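Here is one chain, start to finish.
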Amino acid sequence: MKTAGTPLPPESSRRDWRRLGWLALALLLAGSLAGWLWDQQVSRNVVRLGILHALTGPMAISEKPMAEAELLAIEEINAAGGVLGRKVEAVVSDTASDPDMMVRQLERLLAEEKVSAVIGCWTSACRKTLKPIIERHGSLLIYPMAYEGLEKSPNIIYTGAAPNQQILPAVNWSFEHLGKRFFLIGSDYIWPHAVNAIIADQLKALGGEVIGETYLPFGGTDPASAIEQIRATHPDVILSTVVGDSNAPFYHALKEAGLTPKQAPVISFAISETEVQQIPRADIAGHYSAWNYFQTINRPENKLFVQAFRNRYGATRVVSDVMETAYFSAKLWARGVERAESVEAEDVNQALMGLSYNAPEGIVTIDPVTRHTWRSFNMGKISEDGSINIVWSADYPIRPVPYPSSRSVMDWDTFLETLYVSWNHSWTNRFSNAKPGQP
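Its structure:
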């Protein structure tokens, strides 16, 4: 009895189709195996290093040059043979000056790119946002920026200056040479608020006076209200923690208001050679800058560094403290890898303790107790040609002290937590319209 439907193909045809199916599966598996073997070969011959900076947004003016300096260091490391016989591959990510993007990019670097370590951030808001993620992954962040201190993480190496290596020496020098009455101005996020609290404690101990304190919204470009407050108080010195794109309108408004460097000099903890190039010289010449490194340092190692950077990026380019710190941070990481004989974050982390490097500024050493770095210090005055001339230097590298002794560690931690909670669990005061004073 016959049944309706499509007749079955002959047995030989069915065997052919089965063979084709098995062949396709074998090819698929072979392709996957080849891809896995290729990945293994790449991972054996390449070490990935994450570079995480704001390449767009208000902080790009300061952070793009840091990334360039890190890439220069990586090129030099590779030219010298790489690390452990392997090439270093930079994986560059843009935070876009945005906290949410910072988190996404860091997660990508750690989970997808499998980087050995990350060098990155400029603002403390960035570092504090990423700190719990770095710690959760057991990874390693090298932070190449002077900051407020008040922190120690087992997964972060702090190569930038602690407050006793930048803020306090500058305040002492200003008190001795410029005046006793200080006005404090900064961008409205964690670093300026913490720095100004440290400054206030220091001035109280010296017998100086804080006669005013105000903040510009992060990335804000209208300093009119702040300028009026400065004019009304007649300070001897203005201490500035204004960052990024906010600096050009701030210095211009000072000049327009008749507040010249002779009347009220600004000492900036964020303006360096890089930012000076973006501000009209007539607005900024005569003011001061406090850093650990300036391009004008007269050392053979510094001359080689400046020339190498210009050969790579252009003969008219300038270098700054954060760029030098970014540069030697990559060099220190490479030495840590060689010392550890491993690219694993935990091994490199331990190997970095006590490690020294002859940086352009001088010998820098990672302090194994604080995980911060011994650094030099210089006061500089901005000239009419845009260079920063050193007017005073510390005699020796300064030992890092992350927590100023004016308050207990518990009190400093409470101070930071109060700011964080008052800003709706953020390290940037996004909801403030530059209210004067600290919350």
